[in-house]
Amino acid sequence: MGKILIFEHTSVLGYKMKRILEQNGFQNVELIKDYNRTNLNQSQPGQRPDCVIVDLDNRKQDMIQLIRKIKKETYDAPVISISGASDLSTLKKAIGAGCREFVLKPFESETLVSKVYKVYYEGQRVTDNNESFKMGEFFKGNAISLKWSDDFAIGIEQIDSEHKQIFEHFNRLYSMMREGHGHEYYQELLGFLADYVNTHFEHEEEYQLSVSFQEYQKHKEHHDKFRERIKEIMESHTDQDISDNDLISISLFIKDWLIHHILLEDMKLKEIVKFV
User: Fold this and answer.
1) What DSSP designation does 67 have?
2) What are the contacts of 76-79 at 24+ separation with CB within 8 A?
3) 150-273 is classed in which CATH architecture?
4) What predicted TM-score, i.e. pTM, was given to this entire model?
5) What are the residue ranges spanned by the domains of the chain?
6) Which pLDDT tens digit goes with each residue over 47-87?
7) Overall CATH class of domain 3-123
């Protein structure tokens, strides 16, 4: 891995994270205390960051704006946020700004290391020829399962029930991958997703039209992109074996959808439900 930047306002925690990463083989780690620093994307070889860690608990700085700045100046480098707060509002703001992963304080060393490994591999192009993209490394100390909670509930029984189904299928995929049986479940998962895009999306879109949802067209475009991606995946595996990279790729794709679409886009419907 290349360069890692750490934006941490407390010296003790900053140097602790730097030491943890260096002890685990990450040699190019830089601790930044000057949050007004510019030119984060140095042009010299090896200087463009592959991962940026940001502590959200600095109350003297607008950390959400800092994440936006980082994403802009580093050509969308993956950002990991750490925080002692786990409220939904903070999570949504950080996700909206471009954060990919979270570490909650206090944290174990392996938690931080696993998140750094994870965002790095998510950022790589997943192909069968990528020999460095290994299932063992992907799961190294890494818990990527997602549990349904009321934070994801919109308040529409049918839609919430269908959202729970995709959570259940994602977690089943995750469990079977860890047990070495993910390849056996891949086609069944694709079958579920093919049905999901034709039924659940239709239900959501019908509801949005019934309440004159102002962002209907934008929301439908998100759905159409998901439909197209599932179609591409299914067409590419009509007569091919399922590789580890296929499993990793689809698990990351679904997880991204669960967090970014349901938690941000679908949650906009929750405000409408209150008045219907």
Assistant:
1) H
2) 77/48, 77/49, 77/50, 77/51, 77/52, 77/123, 78/50, 78/51, 78/52, 78/119, 78/120, 78/122, 78/123, 79/51, 79/52, 79/53, 79/54, 79/119
3) Up-down Bundle (1.20)
4) 0.62
5) 3-123, 150-273
6) 678 889 999 888 888 888 889 888 888 767 889 999 876 56
7) alpha beta
